[in-house]
Amino acid sequence: MALEIAGFELIQGEPARLIPVASEKALEGRATSILLATLSVVEHFAAAVLGTVGQRVGSRASIQCLTEVVLPQDGNTKDRPDGLIVVTVGKRRWSALIEAKIGNAVLDADQIQRYLALARQHKIDAVITISNQFAALPTHHPLKIPKTATRTVKLFHWSWTSLLTQAIYQLDVEQDIDLEQRYILQEYCRYFSHTSSGVKTFDSMNKEWRDVCLTVKNGGKLLKTSDEVKNTVGAWHQEQRDIALLLTRELKAPVSVKLKKPHRDDPERRLKDDCSELVETNCLTSVFVIPDAASELTVTVNLGLRTITCVMELQAPEDRKSTKARVNWLLRQLKDSSEPSLEVIARWPSRAVDTCAPVSILRENPSALQSDNSSLTPHKFQVRLVRDVAGKFSGAKTFLEALNGAVIDFYRQAGEHLRVWTAPAPKLAKSEEVLVNDEAQS
Fold it and tell me: DSSP letter at 420?
């Protein structure tokens, strides 16, 4: 017998419980229930999370969340989505089916296509998948699903880590969460931060990583259409997102991966372009946007040199007329840095070649960056850390440990201290009357 819940006719559906009674082995059901229950009561968290899939949730919104959902289905199909979210604002209703995986379990493309068809049959707006697989944006799904399947039903993806990071961020920055909702969110974070929850960060590159590194090291040629290159770039995309989440947690600010507009709109093109870049340059590159930082943070992994490079770029101060004065302006910002690998690159006007020197050398001799043309002054500075990973580079796990460490070290030693130069405010010229009075007083 069908039940009418949240405006839908269901064969089965239970309200999401904050303290589910599911078996300890049913980690997916427990995790989904806790997440959906938290979304239904913690307003700021719900607004932030649902905002990533295009839903504005204000004080007038009603959020109903169900688990163990069974909808009437055609034929003998007995699919049971893990959950259903229904957002109602006045007469407007938006809904989404939820399919979750936990631990090492991965999403299944055939199953997701069936859920898209089920959503289409019941006029449900979206299907949202949740797993330990990462995606740069909720619209960049880790599975390749035919575009025909998502013409009328949207498909989104959240990683468990991104949801945990959002909850931690809300606790850190939102001051007006009431005590009860704050308590619930703290308990949410406590549960999903524990290893027994099944939530995992991205801790290993793809299985082909070592072979790809050895091919480049031995001078071999990579093929941009090969599975090993595609899998390597796919793993790099997951690591980009993990670094952004790591920085968000450490800085308590929403750090994001900067994507070109064509790549934001088309994840397949992003994968194809980045595969071509890896084959042509032997490098993997990512750009991170950090709120209120002096510049974007660019991270480059060079498979040929086995190095990790972190760079931020600043405009040189135009009110300093000599190279020495401009370098000293930058060095004052780096006075507390003790990183031996930190260096400065000076970029010059015209066609003058960039110059480079370690910070330790510049402290002794700020003129060490001067170009061959002594009449020129640098117009930009790049502060750079280059870390030679050597034997750890080709290890699927050790590489990520070294990469995360390099990013955090660079930002701690340099990035958080850098400041943008701003031109001083123009001054009013002294009037003729003031000049006369000045002369009279003298």
Answer: -
The angle, 0 to 180 degrees and rounded to 10, between the axes of the packed helices 160-173 and 27-41 is 30
The interaxial angle of helices 267-281 and 227-251, nearest 10 deg, is 110
pLDDT at 55 over 90: yes
Q: What single-letter DSSP state applies at residue 437?
A: H
The bridge status of strand 380-388 relative to strand 342-347 is: antiparallel
pLDDT of residue 172: 87
- How far, CA to CA in Å, does 175 sit from each of 5, 44, 169, 182, 251? 34, 10, 11, 10, 17
- Give per-residue pLDDT as tens, 174-226: 778 889 999 999 999 999 999 999 999 889 999 999 999 999 999 999 999 99
Q: Are 129 and 111 in contact (CB under 8 A)?
A: no
Helix, strand or coil for residue 256?
strand
C-alpha 288/C-alpha 248 separation (Å) is 11
What whole-number distance in Å separates Cα of residue 160 and Cα of residue 49? 12
Here the tokens at position 199 are: 């939530």
Side-chain half-sphere of 17: how many Cα atoms within 13 Å? 9
